[in-house]
Amino acid sequence: MSRYLGDDFLLPVIDQHNKEWFTSGEIRVQFCKTCDAAQFPPEDVCIQCLSYDQEFRTVSGEGTVESAVEVNFPVHPLLADKVPYNVAVISLDGAPGCNAIGNVVNKGPAEVEIGQRVRAIFEEATDPTTGDKLLIPNWEAI
Question: Is 93 exposed, middle or buried (0-12, 13-18, 19+ CB in 10 A)?
Answer without folding.
Answer: middle
